[in-house]
């Protein structure tokens, strides 16, 4: 899991202290709040990945919203003729952006309860 550093938590607490009456109406307040909440998250999380083969058919099941590039890479690397990936299977571990998407940014990559897996996950 991508956990905030002590400095990030301290900064988030400063932002929230200045937020006043309705602190979750601005984006920086929302993510400051997420940072504070995530400081108490465990260092690791278990998730269930599945891979099945039925003849020449390969099925992968991932409990995340898998980005297209990851799915295409899994298909490319498979020796099987036919294959597909099931997202949001057997749980929900939120977004699974590619390393490239982490580099590009976007709300799915911002560390939050909805995107907490390590960059290389």
Describe the structure.
The chain is of the alpha/beta class and 121 residues long. Helices cover 35% and strands 17% of the residues. It is built from 4 helices and 5 strands. It has helices spanning 6-19, 27-38, 68-77, 99-104; strands at 50-54, 57-62, 65-66, 82-87, 95-96. The strands form 2 sheets. A 3-stranded mixed β-sheet has the order 1-2-4, covered by helices on one side. Strand 1 and strand 2 (57-62) form a beta hairpin. Helix 1 (6-19) packs across helix 2 (27-38).
Descriptive key words:
two-stranded parallel ribbon, alpha/beta, single chain, 3-stranded mixed sheet, 4 helices, 5 strands, 121 residues
What's this, in brief?
The protein is 35% helix and 17% strand. It has 121 residues and is of the alpha/beta class. The strands form 2 sheets. A 3-stranded mixed sheet has the order 1-2-4, with helices on one face.
Query: Low-confidence parts lasting 5 or more residues at pLDDT below 50?
Result: none
DSSP helix count? 4
Distance between the termini: 9 Å
Biggest sheet statistics: 3 strands, mixed
Helix content: 25-40%
What topology, given as strand order, has the largest sheet?
1-2-4
Structural class: alpha/beta
Number of domains: 2
> Order of helices and strands, N to C?
HHEEEHEEH
Strand content: 15-25%
Rg computed from alpha carbons, rounded to a whole number of angstroms? 18 Å
On the 0 to 100 scale, the average pLDDT is 92
The 3D shape can be described as elongated
């Amino acid at each position: 899991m991508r956990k905030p550093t002590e400095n990030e938590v301290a900064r988030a607490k400063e932002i929230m202290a200045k937020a006043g009456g309705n602190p979750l109406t601005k984006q920086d307040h929302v993510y400051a709040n997420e940072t504070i909440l995530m400081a108490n998250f465990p260092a690791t999380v278990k998730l269930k990945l599945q891979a099945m083969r039925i003849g020449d058919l390969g099925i992968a099941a991932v409990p995340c919203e898998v980005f297209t590039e990851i799915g295409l890479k899994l298909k490319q690397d498979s020796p099987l003729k036919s294959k597909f990936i099931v997202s949001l299977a057997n749980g929900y571990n939120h977004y699974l952006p590619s390393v490239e998407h982490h580099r590009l940014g976007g709300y799915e990559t911002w560390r939050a309860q909805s995107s907490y897996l390590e960059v290389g996950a």
